[in-house]
Amino acid sequence: MLKAANETKLLDYVFSSENADTNPFEGIEGQNILAMPGRYADSLKDISKHNTLSIYQPLKDYYNALKERGLDQVQNNLGVLTHEEPFYDAVIVRLTKNKTENLFHLGYALFLLKNQGTLFVYGVNDNGAARFEKELHRIGLETEHVYKHKSRAFWTSKDDTKLDIDLLREWISKGLSKHIHDTELEALPGLFSADKLDKGSIMLCEHLPKELKGFGADFGCGYGFLSHYVLSNDIASGIACFDHDNRAIECAKANLHQFISDENRVITFHWQDLTTEGAPKNTLDWIIMNPPFHDDADENKRLGQLFVEQAASALKKGGMLYMVANNHLPYEKLMVSHFSSIEKPHEGGGYKIFIAKV
Length: 358
Ligand SMILES: C[S@@+](CC[C@H](N)C(=O)[O-])C[C@H]1O[C@@H](n2cnc3c(N)ncnc32)[C@H](O)[C@@H]1O
Known about the structure:
The chain is an alpha/beta fold. Helix content is 31%, strand content 27%.
């Protein structure tokens, strides 16, 4: 679900022609520029008219918005935009809510940037924008900045003679896929419960039946914890994994590789925004899910409710939904209008489990 963002207003402000004296991109032409992770902004569209603008965006809804509005050099995988040698004249980094992911993006941007190229960073103050400007000082670079709309933009020139290469390596290596303690699974920083398994998801596993018959799905699969559980415990023989984040889909593929290579199983992956693109109607026998309820850092109860509506329409008549939710989230009333029976076998410890039949 797309949101109008303060930091986009700031980006458009800094890049507007009225601010020629403080706009580090004023008058640039013919340059290779990368925006990572890029969200639509009118100023990016303007930059793309006179430069080659590539955009990295792993979230399907934001990816679709960029394509629909004519910014179609967008990729869901950063590897595709990586070149062996520093390639970009400028990189624009949008800060996210995750510290490790931000340091990875800053480090990776510096790695991709030519010497003397421009690194431009912007983000909301709540995501610690001022702190990341200090991180650029720590790595040896001087910055200029503008702040407005509860957001901050800052920029620097890459200077190979000043850059602390050990710190750069540390930022990049911390952002790579990590093993999750006490599991066989790996996750990228920035994904849901990347540091340790989610208590709610574990609780859902404890309430699943011994067998899930037919073909079902994991809605919002993340790095594949629930799918891995039902496959490795022989509860399900196959599963369709849906997520709007391509990084999650790639991690889920890696975590489920032993099942994918088994020809007796059908494991499919769908990089899809379930709230707008949905899933095929009346096709599934069961769905397991721990639905999201955050957009960036903000709570959005409607997001989880849309997951419930999509689950109800994707299930066949008689199909079963197995869901965990945080206790305060309002699903009960909505579920009554979509499911013929609803059980709550557990409520406590901050979570509630639903087992519902269409
Ligand atoms: C609470 S996490 C659950 C992850 C995983 N199933 C688990 O139990 O560890 C919710 C997942 O939904 C995904 N998600 C959020 N919005 C989505 C959307 N609009 N469409 C599809 N997936 C979405 C997130 O990327 C995240 O992986």
